[in-house]
Amino acid sequence: MKYGRVAALAAGLFSASAFAQSSVTLYGVLDTGIEYVSHANAAGDHVIRMPGITGELPSRWGIRGAEDLGGGLKAVFILESGFNLRGGDSGQGGRLFGRQALVGLEGPWGSLTFGRQYTMSYWAMSDADILGPDIYGIGALDAFLPNARSDNTVVYKGKFYGFTFGASWSFGRDGAGTGNSPGQGTCAGQVPGDVNQCREWSAMLKYDGTYFGVATAYDEQRGGTNAAANFFDGVAPFAIRGSGDKDARLQANGYVNVAGVKLGGGWIGRRVESNGPGGDVRSNLFYLGAQYYVTPVLAVDGEAYRVVVQQQDARATLASLRATYFLSKRTAVYGNVAYLWNSAHARYSVSAGGGGTTPAAGIGQLGAIVGVRHSF
Q1: CA dist 190 to 33, 165, 179, 243, Å?
Q2: How far apart are CA 114 and CA 323, in angstroms?
Q3: What are the Cα distances from residue 55, in Å, to 28, 189, 293, 333, 339?
Q4: With 0-12 CB in 10 A as exposed, 13-18 as middle and 19+ as buried, what is 217?
Q5: What is the distance between the alpha carbons of residues 124 and 266, in angstroms, rounded to a whole number?
Q6: Residue pLDDT, tens place only, 174-219
Q7: pLDDT value, residue 20
Q8: Which CATH superfamily is domain 21-375 in?
Q9: Membrane topology per the record (predicted)?
Q10: Is 78 helix (H, G, I), strand (E, B) or coil?
Q11: pTM value?
């Protein structure tokens, strides 16, 4: 009799699962080109290369899925791997799914997910930063911003009447020990007896209307063994080893659509507080961009950036202009040109395309790329 009940229960469960709505999607982006960078080293030599990291968008492949559990509840997951098309090697320190690896639940109340995920710094900028993770975009001045991810992270996001609320909490932002993001060192965290070491948390409030949107976010990383702070201006990264040390970014931004033109801009204030030899360092990064579709298949956009690192006496201005022609819904060709002006003590690089292009202090750089992008 017991066996009969078990069989009936199993049959019922199988029947229910057969009618559940589920989907799994394979997707990806392939993006590369030929790049020219002037004054690529201290001797003033130029370089022509295929960039190692990105053109318009970072190359990636991924799998995402959802299962309808009924009552408006879904199970969701994403596994996303970044790679460099130039050599076929994995990005994000060689991680298999270094861009995203998460699972969770989604419902009318929002979503709650667990794993390696973007922090709210990334999501807050997604509409106002016109060029996004472009090779001559904001990542040239702060490489953390287009790579704002953390391991061991719980994320909540919910959208209600145009408002999006989001928060993340990481117990240890670099569980693989390969570097949480460019220039931040390794900070595995989850140390017994020190709950703050390598902790990261972020929060976001965002509003999107028909013609405009605004957002603000705060992102804080605590120090720990082998953690470091890098301002990407040519000054060597300095350690932030204490769990009381902080590397925090506060931002505010917005965008508006007017007469077919999208305008976006914002401010990011960064403050590193350290009890070590690095001391306290602050920076302010401003950006303003615009995008216009000349025809339905030709988009022209550009953005200007200004960064000031007061304690390191470093300043830079970057101007970037891009044109994209869509051959189809999935394939586009593009051209991008940019120029970077460094102050007397700064050594920023115009290109976020894989490093190795640092000029002498006070020297500007010209960058140009022609590339192709295909999505699947």
Answers
A1: 41, 27, 15, 11
A2: 37
A3: 15, 33, 20, 11, 16
A4: buried
A5: 10
A6: 988 887 778 778 888 888 989 999 999 999 999 999 999 999 999 9
A7: 59
A8: Porin (2.40.160.10)
A9: Multi-pass membrane protein
A10: strand
A11: 0.91
